[in-house]
Design goal:
The complex is a heterodimer of chains A (113) and B (112). With 113 residues, chain A is an all-beta fold. Helices cover 0% and strands 57% of the residues of chain A. Chain A has strands at residues 4-7, 10-13, 18-25, 31-37, 44-50, 53-57, 64-70, 73-79, 87-94, 103-104, 108-112. The N and C termini of chain A lie far apart (31 Å). In chain B, strand 3 and strand 4 form a beta hairpin. The chains are: A mainly beta (113), B mainly beta (112).
Chain lengths: 113, 112
């Protein structure tokens, strides 16, 4: 248990569906992140939030839409995804952006059919 | 974060000591060295962090030579459950607006 909780753990969705991934941390951290990990590839940083403001968007397609309503919650809204978007989506938090000790959730295994 | 180089994969046996070396020739004065462990279908887990010489915790030891251009993660008496991917990261503990950047890591396979 890392203190970062992601739901759901598994998700199967069609290309026309809309779904959301949820991440929650009660560690008092000010920074939250979304990562994508495709099969046999390194983790890819998608979005960085600091104190509920997005500070980084690594050229992620607009079909992925993050939301950070408060410093404890982070969402990733998904719509019109493609099969190549199937991956493990990981949420992480750290005391502040750039800190090298981060805490990761268990991830959401997403399959787009 | 400074660029790091580590072996793609390693094999060992239960009960052995495993040493994984990471090269980071361009490490900056303020940079720390951090190692993460990742099991399949799980998020990475922080293992250990150090700046120089030797750091030890309940999981591993980290050896850093005086020039800090490399570091070695040492796992004592490994078991099958230590099979995982190990990532070496180098950066300022309070640096910039970037999230952590992970490389390909070292896939460690422990055999009986």
């Amino acid at each position: 248990e890392t203190g970062v909780t992601q739901t759901p753990r598994h998700l199967v969705m069609g290309m026309t569906n809309k779904k959301s991934l949820k991440c929650e941390q009660h560690l008092g951290h000010n920074a939250m992140y979304w990562y994508k990990q495709s099969a046999k590839k390194p983790l890819e940083l998608m979005f960085v939030y600091s104190l509920e403001e997005r500070v980084e968007n690594n050229s992620v397609p607009s079909r992925f839409s993050p939301e950070c309503p408060n410093s404890s919650h982070l969402f990733l809204h998904l719509h019109t995804l493609q099969p190549e978007d199937s991956a493990l989506y990981l949420c992480a938090s750290s005391q502040a952006t750039g800190w090298t000790e981060a805490f990761f959730g268990q991830g959401t295994r997403l399959t787009v059919v | 974060l400074a660029k790091t180089t580590q072996p793609i994969s390693m094999d060992s046996y239960e009960g052995q000591e495993v040493n994984i070396t990471c090269s980071h020739n361009n490490i900056a004065t303020n940079d720390y060295i951090t190692w993460y462990q990742q099991f399949p279908s799980q998020g990475p887990r922080f293992i250990i962090q150090g700046y120089k010489t030797k750091v030890t915790n309940e999981v591993a030891s980290l050896f850093i030579p005086a020039d800090r251009k490399s570091s070695t993660l040492s796992l004592p008496r490994v078991s099958l459950s230590d099979t995982a991917v190990y990532y070496c990261l180098v950066g300022d503990t309070r640096g910039g607006a970037d999230g952590l950047t992970f490389g390909k890591g070292t896939h460690l396979i422990i055999q009986p």
